[in-house]
Amino acid sequence: MSKTIMIVDDSASVRQVVSIALKGAGYDVVDACDGKDALTKLDGRKLHLIISDVNMPNMDGISFVKQVKAHPSYKFTPVIMLTTESAADKKQRGQEAGAKAWIVKPFQPQQMLAAVSKLVLP
């Protein structure tokens, strides 16, 4: 059975690039345009990993990760932040919220897939 990964990014083109790379590697993909949209999709289905942007309208990535980690079904779901932010303080806040990895855009799909394969839940 394939594993499901949620992509949360307000850029449709980023969601598309990430989605194509993940589907090419055999993953199922659920996408959301911001943190609020993503929370509505946390409906109990098993997610093996979440990839989230940091800067988004409605709910930013760090607030979203905090909400995910507070959700009993998703408390242990690994999160990768995929963002243009490279500042150490942002990374620190992401890690404190529960993010496991931080990938800076522009990124190489192979680099992202390597992080995904390391972190994705069994």
TrEMBL record:
Give the protein name, as stated in the record.
Chemotaxis regulator-transmits chemoreceptor signals to flagelllar motor components CheY
Which keywords fit this entry according to its UniProt record? Phosphoprotein, Receptor
Sites where 4-aspartylphosphate occurs are at 53
Output the InterPro entries linked to this UniProt entry: Bact_response_regulator, CheY-like_superfamily, Sig_transdc_resp-reg_receiver
Q: Set out the biological process GO terms recorded for this chain's protein.
A: phosphorelay signal transduction system
Q: Where is the Response regulatory domain?
A: 4-120
What is the native source organism of this protein?
Answer: Imhoffiella purpurea
- Record SUPFAM superfamilies: CheY-like (SSF52172)
Q: Name one Pfam family in it.
A: Response_reg
